[in-house]
Amino acid sequence: MHELSIAASIVEAVTESAAAYPGARVTKVRLRVGALASIVEDALQFCWDLASEGTPLAGAALVIKMLPVIVHCDACGADFEIEGVQTLRCPRCGQLAAGISQGRELEIESIELEEPEIAEPKMHQAKPVEEQA
Hints:
This protein has a three-stranded mixed beta sheet, covered by helices on one side. A three-stranded antiparallel beta sheet has the order 4-3-5, with no helix packed on it. It is an alpha+beta fold. Helix 2 links the parallel strand 1 (25-34) and strand 2. The chain has two helices and six strands. The chain starts with a helix and ends in a 19-residue tail after the last strand.
């Protein structure tokens, strides 16, 4: 299950990035995952919980945005989405598509942080000084 090593790598990268904000807590990590990245979303969610346990990211939500495969046709300039196994011929002009422009991503899109709560200073009541006679 390669999702565990991927989750561990994400935990490491986010922990390094969050270190620039001392005291802040990571609440959410957003990923962009292409359909060709060979990631099983449920497996990655499960592995996220395992990999983040006992780290500063424990309890942070992992939000995964799955991206479809988009292919570009150089002949007519069209971009089109493909699903499953199908031809790479452009539906507009019939030419073979030049390449995949989306679908292989595995990117950390954003990290949400919660600022640390600053404790208010405790006010001590000053005791009256007794006057000397």
